[in-house]
Specification:
This protein has 162 residues and is mainly α. It is 64% helix and 2% strand. The chain has 2 domains: 39 residues, no CATH class; 90 residues. Strands 1-2 form a two-stranded antiparallel ribbon. Strand 1 and strand 2 form a beta hairpin. The structure holds zinc ion.
């Protein structure tokens, strides 16, 4: 596996490339490096940066949001899928390109495939699997704390009005 050009760590979800295809583990390392002058003029660079951030956000949050949906009733898995499809829709032309027009089209296409994997994971997610018991317990505690706080606030208001 290729390593970050600056710190030599193995890049994970925060990975980033420049227009020459040089790989970095993060935006911090990316900014350490001297890039070609036209790096930010590349025709696909804005879409690349956007889909990269979209993907990082989704990959980090979708499990928590599924649990939220289970605990609070919102967002439902179906709503999440609709939201995800809307995100992916914006990059439709890159699906047709299939990564054949340089490094950024290649990266964007890879993100589209990863979004497809994420979509499948949301579709098959079942709370009964309890794959993440700790997270579930933490969210249950949070829900109970919120209810307690809301109840206290209501009681305080009743006392004030009485
Ligand atoms: Zn690095």
């Amino acid at each position: 596996m290729k390593r970050c050009k600056v710190c030599r760590k193995k890049p994970t979800i925060e990975r980033r490339v420049n227009s020459e295809g040089v790989l970095f583990c993060s935006t911090d390392c990316y900014e350490e490096w001297e890039h070609p002058a036209d790096d930010c003029d590349h025709p696909y660079v804005n879409d690349y940066e956007m889909i990269r951030l979209d993907y990082i956000k989704w990959a980090k949050n979708y499990i928590v949001r599924l649990y939220e949906g289970f605990i609070y009733g919102y967002p439902s898995p179906r709503y999440l899928l609709e939201e995800l499809d809307e995100v992916v829709e914006a990059y439709y032309q890159y699906r047709l390109l299939e990564g054949r027009d340089g490094i950024y089209s290649e990266e964007i296409h890879t993100y589209l495939l990863k979004f497809g994997e994420l979509r499948a994971a949301i579709q098959s997610w079942k709370v009964e699997d309890h794959q993440n018991k700790r997270l579930f317990k933490a969210m249950e505690r949070e829900r109970n704390a919120r209810w307690t706080k809301a109840k206290e606030e209501l009681e305080a208001r009743w006392l004030e009005e009485a």
